[in-house]
Amino acid sequence: MHFTEVIARKRDGHALARDAIDLFVNGATDGSIPDYQLSALLMAIVLRGMDDEETAALTDAMLRSGVRVDLSSLPGTTVGKHSTGGVGDKVSIALAPLAAAAGVIVPKMSGRGLGHTGGTLDKLESIPGYRTDLSVAEFLRVLRDVGTSIIGQTAALAPADKKLYALRDVTATVESIPLIAASIMSKKLAEGSSALVLDVKCGRGAFMKTEADARALARTLVAIGRQGGVRTVALISRMDAPLGRAIGNALEIAECVAILRGEGPDDLQALVRTIAARMVMLADGSDADAAARTVARALDSGAALARLQAMITAHGGDAAIVDDPGRLPQAANRRTVAASRNGVVAGLDAALLGAAAVRLGAGRERAGAPIDHAAGIVLEARPGDTITRGDPVLHLHYNDARGLDEALRLAESAILVDEAAPAAPPLMMGWIEDQ
Question: Tell me: domain 3-49, CATH 1.20.970.10, correct?
């Protein structure tokens, strides 16, 4: 089969057979198919789509392009977690030790941030000494000793995805549910967990802008997990305003510590507890009420906070930041953005605030660019709060002032003050189950 035939078939709206999809993925992995032909097929997929069978075959081929981590030696049920990303989404860092303290083994391989969506690895690397580059053997050891470990994705897992994503990023072919689903699930299945909880975001600060698109992606992800033999559920959650009050790496680590102390913003607390409870249900068969009580005990007893300290220590990091978050990187400068009028905070645009944080140095606009772990934004007010002209709405934390003017412009435009706030939609909009 010539690869031009594969491109033409998809161009004309036909389904691709498994052997054609294998040719595509193998050619991406070993370099035998040139980038311009790979890009042509990616564009054809974006325009013509893929059915469920094609999407499953693509995921399987990408999974088989690398290794699959064997977690069978671990003494318990392993439950993975993945979020499609959003502004201030630090859930995994609080969730993993909480679920571990509740009896779940939580393996997590994460990525770095690009654009306005922060990366879990970048946040963790704001902890002095924390290593994200553990070997698989070290990863397994930490999982046995602590019950959770968060590391970077190894090059051996789904290498085809790395190649194809790099092409999608520069050829305007990211926006495709089959391609997104295959990218996510090939890596999550390669992690080797026996169950998986997904947090699919929707809204202005998320990749999926509408609830309908988020539900379509979630259904596809859950179906792929089921076909791959992994019990999978997906939560649809809203990302119009940032999650919690902190945006930026060290700032978000400090907020995670607060959450594990039973403090911190209500929205973040609720989301972390809800996902942790569902992980407990998948791990031991508990009903919802029993799982919620188990999670509450793990928090109230201090066990979850102790697991975070143990994970940081096992990764070579400074666990003293749990007792003294002031040991985290601190920005030298702050600038307050105040309300321009009396009223109610009707909206805080997550996408604009995420972009503002990038301008301050908290994120990167191109792969491999350095970031400032201390930079970011802290929200003083939240949607629904009544404010008076001159009241602080948010604080910009920065070391380098070069991006400050643009960050201020973006932050000011992100704040919507009105006479009354619209009815707040729910943060969590329901589960997509694997049955």
Answer: yes
